[in-house]
Design a protein that fits this description.
Strands 1, 2, 3, 4, 5, 6, 7, 8, 9, 10, 11 and 12 form a twelve-stranded mixed sheet that branches. The chain has two domains: 3-134 and 295-315, 3-Layer(aba) Sandwich (Aminopeptidase), CATH 3.40.630; 139-268, Gcn5-related N-acetyltransferase (GNAT) (Aminopeptidase, 3-Layer(aba) Sandwich), CATH 3.40.630.30. The longest helix has 18 residues, at 84-101. Helix content is 39%, strand content 27%. It is α+β, with helices and mostly antiparallel strands. The protein is built from eleven helices and twelve strands. The relative contact order is 0.16.
Length: 317
């Protein structure tokens, strides 16, 4: 049994592996032949894993994030009752072994889950780190408490939208993609993924019973907004959304977020907005009273060609 086969078996029984690192997710977003995994084994147990996607451009091979995938990075199985001092030693050992087992590539670039906090072993091996942020709502069961933690403008938008639109669920990925397209068209930007990828993700998540699409429409059946959420045993995730630019002021997106949060409380523990470094999006997510969580983007460039190209771009700024 090779590493991928072992990892597929692990994913079936290990609930703490995030959805973005699951084998079936990687099959959908990267293709079955385009990803692999580093495993650390102690006896018969797998104690750590790092799945990765290898991409090729010209003569370069590099590890990077697949589209619509927030995080990858390391999953670790800590020994029961482990002391903190031993925990740090365990992390050092595991990270060192994983780095040694990574394939030889021209560049490495991955976002690690926010639960991974000790990147020092990567630093010692010449990797770089940039801090990103996501926003997490915890303890989803108390809806009243959650609602009172929202900023007043969010609560006001939700109340306004409740009078204007109805919320419903639909399996039409084409209708959802149309709303996404409207959002990017308004910004005069290309959509960073296509309908075919979205269909693959939707099919995989539908099979695993871990996705829901929310729409908001008015009495005239005009769709104001739509959002797509997924979930695992630990959290739900706002994966993507879109809206009609001519109906942006209805408050429908805030209402859909609220409905998605309430639904998520029935299937998992937390709600992850997935964060953004774009100021306006960050402001919207943080207004829901979610906790800011840092997560690491870890990278390393081995190729002299990429190093020269990067330095040249910096020089021209």
């Amino acid at each position: 049994m090779n590493n991928k086969d072992k990892y597929r078996e692990l994913c079936k029984v290990e609930p703490m592996i995030p959805i973005f690192s699951k084998d079936w997710w990687l099959d959908a977003v990267a293709g079955e032949e385009n990803w692999d995994v580093v495993l650390i084994e102690k006896g018969d147990d797998i104690v750590a894993s790092l799945p990765y996607v290898i991409k090729k451009k010209f003569f370069l091979r590099y590890i990077s994030m697949p589209k619509l995938t927030q995080t990858a990075g390391i999953w670790m199985k800590y020994p029961d009752g482990q002391k903190y001092a031993n925990k740090i030693s365990f992390e050092r050992e595991v990270c060192k072994e994983i780095i040694e087992k990574l394939p030889s590539v021209d560049a490495f670039s991955q976002n690690f889950h926010y639960s991974f906090t000790n990147w020092l072993p990567f630093y010692w091996e010449g990797f770089n780190q940039t801090t990103f942020y996501t926003y997490i709502l915890e303890n989803l069961k108390d809806h009243q408490k959650l609602f009172t933690q929202f900023k007043e403008n969010i609560r006001r938008e939700i109340r306004k939208a409740e009078k204007k639109v109805k919320v419903y669920n639909s399996d039409s990925i084409e209708d959802f993609f149309l709303m996404v397209k409207k959002t990017f068209d308004r910004q005069n930007q290309p959509i960073p993924y296509d309908l075919e990828l979205l269909r693959k993700i939707d099919a995989a998540c539908t099979k695993e019973k871990c996705r829901k699409i929310f729409f908001a429409a008015d009495e005239g059946n005009q769709v104001h907004s739509a959002i797509f959420i997924i979930w695992d045993s630990q959290s739900a995730y706002y994966l993507m959304g879109g809206g009609d630019p001519e109906l942006r002021n209805s408050g429908a997106t805030s209402l859909l977020m609220w409905e998605a949060i309430k639904f998520s409380s029935t299937v998992t523990a937390n709600f992850n907005f997935e964060g953004s470094m774009i100021q306006s999006i960050e402001r919207f997510f943080s207004a829901f009273g979610a906790i800011q969580k840092p997560y690491f983007h870890i990278s390393k460039t081995n190729s002299a060609v990429i190093k020269i190209h990067t330095a040249w771009k910096e020089l021209l700024k």
